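Lab meeting prep.
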Amino acid sequence: MKVYVIGNPQAVLGFSLVGISGRAATSAAEVNEALDDVLAAKDVGVVLVTEDVARLIVSRMDNLKLHSTVPLIVEVPGPEGVRSDQPTLAEVVRRAIGIRI
């Protein structure tokens, strides 16, 4: 199963450098379209969505995080970094897929 990222262009570029494909989104319509496409894909196991992009579709993200099992939807820090009340990106990835980065 693959890991896929939906986020701002810089995040998608950064993840692509380590071999994770993704799709940049800057509007709610683009985020919803990217989610629809990835949820229909049979080979994606984990979808990482950056916080800045997730804020564009809060109610859908909340629903997916609670109910989606395959693929697993995980919110990761956006370009502003980790909020003090949130785990680091490395911790989020370790919890989600069991890989320490």
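Slide two material, second protein:
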Amino acid sequence: MKILLRAATIFDASSAFHQQQQHIVIENGIITYIGADEQQADQIITVEGLCVSAGWIDMFAYAGEPGLEYKEDLETLSAAAAAGGFTEVLCLPNTNPVVQSKAGINFIKSKSALLPVTLHPLAALTVETQGKDLTEMIDLYKAGAIGFTDGTKPLQGADVLLKALQYLQTFDGLLLNRPEHTRLSEHGQMHEGQASTRLGMKGIPALAEEVMVTRDLQLLAYTGGRMHFSLVSTAAAIEAIRQAKAAGLQVSCDVASYQLAFTDETIPPFDTNYKVLPPFRGEADAAAIREGLQDGTIDALVSAHMPQDTESKKLEFDLAEFGIINLETAFAVANTTLGDTLSTAALVEKFAANPRRILGLPAPRLEVGEAANLTLFSPDEVWTPTLAHTKSKSGNSPFFGQALRGKVIGIIHKGQVVLNSSF
């Protein structure tokens, strides 16, 4: 099948056509033409403000399969990812059973083989993600694990982290950790500040994140190796990472694309669809995130997609589970909240180029003869996500009914075309 992307603006810093408007032809999954001349095709995609970039990759998303498929399975995760413009997604290991064996890795790889989205398995760093004994990381790496993390469970033991960093250096493996001192954040429900005090809710202090970032960076400086912090949210943590990068440590980090959509003062009280971890912080932290994104301290934007079934969310605030779905809205939310901070080219870098650099994955190129791994989007189109049209199994989103700027048109990957509308 021959597909024409008519008058698409290309975002690919490695391409001679970067930020130029060109016609693009894809035939049987291969880019066969890029140029100014109109071409014939079996299918023509023409959209006002159409843009195209290398397919986006998400570094933090959760699917319950195996074991917790009622929250999200791999098929619905793939559908949500495609709708959100992601051609590749890293899957957290916190399933039942935990992804800590070759069989677990192969299960994800085989299930995603025919899906339009490539699902990369993250393997557990410790057995059963309990933070005690290390998994067989070399075997898991050879089986296809793209990185090692305990996922939703922040690693607490300094001795375990030190050993893991040393062990991973034998094959240049990547350790990912969400920084949180769980004893400091225990029973916390939202950011610790004036809002939490007014509402009479136990707060999650910024200190819980900052203490762990400082500790982990000290261990990284001692051992060497590569470390990635998932979902940073505080000013002091970002500054510590900035200084570590300046000192030459191999450290990177990401932030949830929704982190700046609200602060602790602007979220509706007791609405569990706004209960996320790390929580929405204060204005000073939001300003630090903007600065970190601008100066490159924060490398990537992620969906932090955390589907929860109705029984886990339709509860009193202090009993409800943390997390929101965001694969389908990740770009639009970031584009809406960061449009005055990051250009479209910079957003694409945070969603596509930098994650692959961190993970050591080859970057798709928009060149003739290359396999098409593409995201199609319109950064200025306004749309409104709704529960009725979500691809996810779960509906825990604060963005339903809100107008967002920046719409994903679809993806082209693995010879498959997935579009959000008919063209």
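Talking points for slide two:
The chain has a mean pLDDT of 97.
The chain has two domains: 2-51+369-419, 55-359.
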